[in-house]
Structure formats: structure tokens, C-alpha cells
Amino acid sequence: MREQSLTENEGRLVAADATLSDILTLRLCVGYLGEKEQSDWWASLWLSPHASAFLSPIYGSRSDAARLSGVIESARRVHDSRIGMACPHRVIHMEC
């Protein structure tokens, strides 16, 4: 019979999942706040109800992932154009 507690490896996976979830939530929040209808940091409307209606027939159940990718790309382009790609203090890119 298997023990109820997590092994060390399983514990790391759970922690990694929680970290990934936190990163995605943060990106979603910043993406929403930066959209044209909110703070107008970038001129996109990926998270608006209209985008959902437009993307659902194309992406189906993956439309939420497409919307998140779109808003992250919009933020990345604005960020890179203002700060530059060679800057070591980039916020949007995780692969520094």
C-alpha cells in the first residue's frame, strides 16, 4: 500500500506547478491591466469579450490560451521597443 505523503520528487513537481500557476496568473493580470481598455500601455484587446467571440470559432477550447499568448506577445513587443532587447533587466522574458 502506498504512503499518503508525497515523495521528495512529487513535492518538487507540486511546487513547480504552483510556481508556474503564479507566473501565469501574474502575466494574465499585468496583461489585462495593460490592455487598451484599461491603462492603454499597449493597443491590444486580447482579453476583451469581443476577442473571445472572434477566437472561439478558430481555436475552440484553446481560445483562452491563444488570448493569453496574444496579450503576452503584445506586452513583449511594447516592452522591447521601450527598454530594448539587450537590457539585462527585462521583465517579460524569463530566459535572461
UniProtKB/TrEMBL annotation:
InterPro entries: BrxE (IPR058690). It holds the Pfam family BrxE. It comes from the Bacteria. NCBIfam families: BrxE_fam (NF033447). This is BrxE family protein. It comes from Thalassococcus profundi.
